[in-house]
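Input chain follows. Return structure tokens only.
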Amino acid sequence: MSGDSTASNDWLEGMKRLRQFPFSPDGPFTSYGERAPDGLVTVGWDQNKLFPAYRVPSADGTSELVPFTPLAQFPPHGANGDWYVDNFTDASIKRRWAEAKTDPEIADRVRTLSENLTVPHEFRATGSIDPRGRIYAKGVVDLRDIRRPAFFGQAPWNEPIAAVDGMTSIVEVAVPREPFERQRLGLTDPIRIRGWHLAGKGIADGKGGRVRALVILTGGRSIETTAINHPDDNPAYWDATAKGWIQSAYPDAYRRSESWGARSWRNNYIFRFQQAGFDVLTLDKRGHGISAGDNDSNTNEQANDIFRALDSFETGAGLRMLTPNGALLEEASAAGYLLAGYASAKQLPVFLSGASQGCMVTVWAMHKNFVGGTDFERPSAGGLTAPLGYAIKGALVLAPFVGGLGYRPADESLLEAFRRSESHVQVFATSEIMAHIHEWPAVFIGRGLWDFSESLEGSFEAYREGAPAEGFGDGTRAAW
């Protein structure tokens, strides 16, 4: 696959470097006391550079260098305490930004960085290739117009998820505007987020029977549940001019895909969990796809939407749904329908999972449920509220950001503080998550070795913090 020949070399070079995790090729790559890398390895998409690597043996006696993402920041000499926790809380980064913004050079640099996540911003690709399933997400929507799993069973897509169309409901939940929309745009009307609910057959209860449980899956940045992703299209292509792997932009010249990643999201996550027996809920995040909203980046507010959806399942307030047999249920008539026989939303066993931006949403939701509030982008952000107390059994975090901003480049702490303080938008996890991850009942951390989300050491530290010697309160341990 080739890129658009009209694209400028500047754009190509920018895309090549967009996701590079900045570090010196001379190191250091790991913190003091950790084993030094065994060598350097060239990695392709989406980094296009040399990365440090450890030599990993195989059962047949051979070995290979396996690359990983190094640390982005190191504690200063003589630092006391848990530097990666103490210095990357919400209060800490806001204090640094208040000091740094008095320097015009720093302030300009951070505000320029903020343009990469300009607000308002939205992802709206669904329906751009095929008009079937195209809706005006901010308006009153006929739920029958939204694509169902069976749509993707047609040629040329032929996706396995079509097999569960008869178990799928289209769901819409009314939720309030977020701080940015209220404070900066003057919008106060509710918005509606939409997606799919798939009923499962239940999972093993350890006693020879089965029990219903819900997995709530939150997609990564730009993922739209019902967008077309052609099986012959690739996420990246080699560009000889830029001498690197470039992320494909859709719709491209072939006009076959509306967005990349949706096919894998539907079939390797939504479908697989349903086949394992779980009920599955996946909602396009606010500002994405078939969900309304004028901003796609506030992961804290997207986490709040998880609990708003659960509450609506119990009460019916703000809920509309189209059942598998085509019945339209609203408000009171929809109350309880998606609770799998449980009397209340807080009795329904729930697992949370998300990748990349969906991971940020997941970790905020876990913190809210087991520790307390995280509404740091509010103008009056202050003390924590009480834990929410839903029956969440664990989290699966993929392409993780759970380690916090200490494991990201230094400027991103200032950028996050700028967004929270001046735009009222909250994106990256601060270290409140790391400090309290041991209070979660269980967590599974999955990542690509050179995933740019955070350093490999940051993910391992989250694992260590989450699995102290005595384990979790219910006897379980974090899994890697």
